[in-house]
Structures are given as C-alpha cells and as structure tokens.
Amino acid sequence: MATTGTPNRNPLCLLWAIPYLLCGVFSHLLNDPVSHALFVWLPPGVAVGAYLLSARRNWPLMLLGFFCAQLILTLLWRGQPLTAIFLAVTGSLSSLLAAWTVQRLSPRPEGLGFVAALLAGAVVGAASSAIVGGGWLWLAQEPNAVFRLRTWVSAYLAGVLILAPALTGWAQFRPRRSGGPGMRDLLLGAVAYVLMIVSTFMTFDGDMIQNLPYVVSFELTYLPLVFAVLIALVWGTPGGTLAMVTLMLMALYQSAQGEGPFVEASDPWHVLLATQVYLVVTALLLLLVNTLRGARAQALETADQWRGRFDLALAGSHQLMYRYNPYDGSLELAGDLQEAFGIAAGAITDLDSLLAHAHPDDRARLSLHWAARRAGAQDRTPLLFRVAHSSGGWRLVSDRGSPLADFDGSVAVVAGMWRLGEIEHESAHA
Fold first, then answer.
1. CA 102/CA 117 separation, integer angstroms
2. Which residues cross the membrane (predicted)?
C-alpha cells in the first residue's frame, strides 16, 4: 500500500556543518579579540553555497546543522548563551534567505544571471543579518555595536561572494571523455599556479614591498589576478576554484599579520576589509571567466551532439549531404565517406576531385550538370552517376539538389543530398 509523508532527506547534508565550523575558526583567528568585531567571516559563503547545491527537502536539516555550528562558534568566542543563541538563529536564517533569493532570481547555478542573483542574495542576507543581529546588539547595549555592525556587513558580503561561487563552480565540473586538459595545458596551468603563489607572496609580504615605491607595490596586486584568470582558462572551473582558495588563504593570512599593500598605520584593521574587497573582485572575475568558458563549452558540446545525431541520420538513411561554394569552388560532404566509397573524409573537396572519382562515362554529363547549377539552373531532376569504390566496383549515386540565390540573384550556394545505391561490379569500359 502506498504511503504519503514528508520527502526523504539525506542526513549526509549535515556534513556541510564541518567546513562551516572550520571557516568560522579560521575567521575568528583573524578578528579583533578586544571589540569582537568580525573583519573576516567566511561561513556564510559555505552555507549559501551548500544550500544552492542541495535539494530543498534537505534545507531544514542543513539549517539545523548550521545553527548548531554557529552556536558552537559564538559560545566559544563570546561565552554569552542568550546572545549566542540569538546570533546563531540570525546567522543561519540569513544564509537560508540569501540562498532562497539566489534561487528565485536564477533557477540555474550558471550563466550571467547567476552572477547578478548571487550579488542580490548576498546583499539580502547581509541586510537581514545586520538588521536583526545588529538590532539585538543595540538593544543589549553591547559595546562598539555600530562599529561591529559595519564590519559585520562587509565581512558577510565578502564571505558569500568569495566562497559561494567557488563551491558552486566546483560542483558544476564534470569530467570529460577526453580525459581533461592536455599536457601543454597542464604545464601552462602549473606554471601559472606557481607564479600566482610567488607573486601573491611578494605582493603581501611586508619585508619585500617596504623597499619598493608605493605605486610599484600597488601595481603588483594585479599580477595574482592575471595568473588566477590564466589558471581558470587552462584548468577550467577546478583550477579557478583552487586559485581562488589559495589566493584567499595567502592574502588574508599575510594581511592579518599587518602586511601587504592595503596596510594603513592609522587603522590597522582596514587591511583585512580592503583585502576582502580585493578577493571579492577576484572571485567575481573568476566566476565570469568560468561562466563564459562554461557557456562556450556547452555550445560546443551541443553542436557536437547535433553533429553526431545528424551523422547517424545520414548513415541510417544511406545518404550524404553536400554544400558547394561557387565562389571558391569548394565542395563539402557530410556523412560517412568511408562507408559510402571507402575513401577518407577529405578525399573529395572540389568538383575536380569529384570528377576524378566518377565513372569515365559519367564525367561529361556530370560536368554539364554542375555548370548548369553554377549558372542558376533550377532543374530538380535527380542526376544518376557512379563513383569508384576502393574495394572495387562503382557506387550508384542519385544527386538531388539545387542552387540557392543570393540577394542580388546570383548563386550563393548549391546544396543537396546524395542518395547511395548499390555497388556495381561491372567493368568501367563495358
């Protein structure tokens, strides 16, 4: 007997709480222990990315997991149970609202629409978190509430825009039958990855940049972005994600040490906010690169699929398709020439090569036929001729085609089909 009830949920979705906790620990290590201001807050990026990659039936379980993870983090670093519970509720619900906004605006986790939807979702999540959580801090008369609220919004936005695209981009990766990038791309990507690490270290290392003019040290910040984009281009989405995570860890860690091109003596914590803006720009740039690269790959794959279906249809109907260009004399044949005539695909490329393969008794008639087509004759009577087969004999071909006129009345192209008949084994000169 059939039963009804709630849809099955996958308890493994609770494992998303582990990277949420790890990113929370890493973020707290970079924040101000005195004012408890959050200058770096990466967990919302994990939560939003996890929601976008999971079925909605699993969202309640994930909400519970993120609530527990946030509660643990807040209790460990603040030790105030009531505030910890309230902030855990606020943090988990704001990430859920951000993910819901992204899905409502862009049902597919790809394309340029997803980029705009992700920006909108990050703003909605940050605003809701700031209004509710900031309101609680204000009512509870927490010290430095306004300053903490300002850094909270910046850190939340950065966390979503840095990590969520990396997670969704990696999840869209699918191995190809070709086995991935070739040796040349692997080496080029490896070189770019090493150069990105070296340039990032040089850019954010205080001992190196202090001896350089400010203009030079600031311009060096563009080098890691160039190498990160190159990695994304040659290694695809996994490479872009690896580059983003590596750049994020190195830049945030060195910036937290008070190093890098964004350091201000009057505001030691400004460096983390400025570094996150730098990382957000990098993440969005890589997301756009992966989006455009993915769209191109999808278009090529779709074209290959249609070509495969078309070739199967031609093979099943025992036909070849042709296209003749009267301007350069090229003749393009689509279909299985190996099966039809036992010759390679590029063996017939123009009318001269066609006549060379045609039966001697048919060449004159074939020449007159094509001369009439080049002149624009619209005679649709099928032309029968024979083409040599490599195994011996002559394949009978029925040509059905016609010229297509250009805007000025001249012949733009001649297109049609060759229907393949039986192979005759009679002598060529019989």
1. 5
2. 12-30, 61-78, 84-102, 114-139, 151-173, 185-204, 268-289
